[in-house]
Design goal:
Number of helices: 2
Distance between the termini: 56 Å
Bound molecules: zinc ion
Number of domains: 1
Strand order of the largest sheet: 3-7-6-5-4
Helix content: 25-40%
Order of helices and strands: EEHEHEEEE
Shape: elongated
Number of strands: 7
Length: 119
């Protein structure tokens, strides 16, 4: 059965599980996938570092408050964080490295710094 190479699209014959017409196509394909993944990791790291920077900027003394609106205006991305800490009382802190926040009422957030004893 002839199939089409995943990389160049050319029809080729061979074992059923073969996806590429030749080794060169397989390696170009895999290299591209790897580049896309590396770029994704880099982009996520940039977002996390930017989030950390925004929190730090708004919280220079280690304890502060900020509105959701202000965070969004600065470019904060709520879906990206490095870790979460839920207290016994059920409060959910989210962190971007050392900078954290806790949702309060009325679209406000308490901004905190990571304490060493918090995992
Ligand atoms: Zn090919």
């Amino acid at each position: 059965m002839a199939r089409n190479c995943l990389e160049c699209g050319k029809a080729f014959l061979g074992r059923e599980d073969k996806k590429f017409c030749e080794a060169q196509c397989r390696s170009s394909y895999n290299n591209r996938i790897q580049r896309v993944r590396t770029k994704f990791i880099r982009d996520v790291n940039i977002i996390l570092r930017r989030n950390r920077y925004i929190l730090k900027q708004l919280n220079p003394k280690g304890k502060s408050k900020a509105s959701r609106q202000l965070l969004l205006e600065k470019g904060f991305r709520f879906s990206y964080f490095t870790n979460e800490y839920i207290t016994k009382a059920g409060k959910r802190y989210r962190f971007c490295y050392y900078q954290g926040y806790l949702e309060l009422d009325n679209d406000y957030y308490a901004l905190v710094e990571r304490q060493e004893y918090v995992e």
